[in-house]
Specification:
By secondary structure, the chain is α+β, with helices and mostly antiparallel strands. Helix content is about 30%, strand content about 25%. Strands 3-4-5-6-7-8-9 form a seven-stranded mixed beta sheet, sandwiched between helices. It has a five-stranded mixed beta sheet with strand order 11-10-12-16-14, sandwiched between helices. It has a two-stranded antiparallel sheet with strand order 1-2. The longest helix has 22 residues. The model has no long low-confidence stretch (mean pLDDT about 90). It binds 1,6-di-O-phosphono-alpha-D-fructofuranose. 1,6-di-O-phosphono-alpha-D-fructofuranose (AFP) binds next to loops.
Length: about 350
């Protein structure tokens, strides 16, 4: 049974603990929560109001845009633009950065988001989500924002989180140096109510999540790691269980609560040769902040995800994220394989 702490009250309580806070970040978080309430309403009605299917457009990632993606993107851009708190927006659905005319000179924050992650699952009613990153503006107030405001490393994030639209809708977020808290949407009162306080992820999990169809193109060491997980070892709780939805936010959320590791390695062949698939600013970085603040880890194979300084808006990265000891083990396997080459 949940206490009756709404997300709004939780945000205000957190703000009280920050002497000197202007309240703008709290208002911004609340704007994001409001946008996600609107998005979740459409997600649950999508089949009835003909929001399923494709718009026919192709987005910056070369993927066909689903109608709900476009809708979710519009809701977030509109809400954040009207709020006067954000000087710059980056969206996975939009080629270039968005400068909200209303608040470009006065907004103290920068937001990047994937409005609807896992969109290829929409038409089958599989869980999908919204993921967001919040940075403080770097350029001086009063002027126009710059690309550098958006191209900041994860260590500079002031807050990040996600909403999963699943059997229930849940918002999870964390702030710099803070705990990770979860709020379940109660449709009868129209509020996100605090349901998970100070989430900690187990040091070692028992689930692995990876698209095994790509095994032949994985970078060296990843297959060795997955083989280890399948090998019976009662002391380590092995064999692990395999779970892969194909919606990062849903796979990540389950592993965060139960313990486990999500892998999306660099591809060694095909069109993505030498690159990962997931987007740094909209997917990997915000989830890395949540994972780390919950006691887990997130790595690209080369460096901790939160240390990567983005050079492009739609930059992709390999991602190994989840329970700390599992992430450490996959990195050790990759290192050993590279040493052998
Ligand atoms: P879509 O938004 O196009 O469905 O992509 C989802 C995603 O970015 C991420 O949510 C999944 O974890 C990942 O791609 C799945 O990728 P594969 O289909 O290659 O396994």
């Amino acid at each position: 049974m949940y206490g009756m702490v709404t997300i709004e009250r939780h945000i205000i309580e957190q703000e009280r603990d920050q002497p000197g806070a202007s309240g703008m970040l709290s208002e911004l978080l609340y704007d994001i929560a409001l946008s996600c309430k609107i998005i979740q309403r459409e997600v649950t009605r999508a089949g009835l109001i003909e929001l399923l299917g494709k718009t026919g457009d192709i987005n910056i990632q070369g993927e066909t845009v689903a109608k709900l993606d476009e809708y979710a993107n519009d809701v977030l851009v509109r809400t954040l633009s009207q709020g006067q708190r954000v000087c710059l927006i980056g969206s996975e659905e939009v080629d270039d950065m968005i400068v909200p005319a209303e608040s470009a000179t006065v907004g103290k924050y920068v937001v990047a988001f994937d409005p609807l992650d896992g969109s290829s699952n929409i038409d089958a009613n599989v869980s999908i989500g919204t993921i967001f990153s919040i940075f403080r503006r770097r350029s001086p107030l009063g002027g126009q924002p710059t690309r550098e405001d958006l191209l900041q490393p994860g260590n500079e994030l002031v807050a990040a989180g996600y909403v999963v639209y699943g059997s229930s809708t849940m918002l999870v977020y964390t702030t710099k140096g803070g705990t990770v808290n979860g709020f379940t949407y109660d449709p009868s009162v129209g509020e996100f109510l605090r349901s998970h306080i100070a989430i900690r992820t187990p040091d070692r999990g028992h689930i692995y999540s990876v698209n095994e169809g790509n095994t032949e193109s994985w970078e060296p060491g990843v297959e060795d790691f997955v083989k280890r997980l399948k090998h019976a070892d009662p002391d380590l709780g092995r064999p692990y269980t395999s779970r892969y939805i194909g919606s990062l936010v849903a796979d990540f959320h389950r592993n965060l609560l139960y313990g486990g590791v999500f892998l999306y390695p660099r591809s060694m062949s095909g069109g993505r040769k030498g690159r990962g698939k997931l987007r740094l600013l909209y997917e990997a970085m915000p989830l890395a902040m949540v994972a780390v603040n919950a006691g887990g880890a997130a790595h690209s194979g080369d460096q901790p995800v939160l240390d990567i300084v983005p050079t492009e808006l739609h930059q992709r990265t390999p991602l190994f994220i989840g329970s700390r000891l599992d992430v450490e083990e996959v990195l050790a396997c990759m290192q050993a394989a590279n040493g052998k080459r």
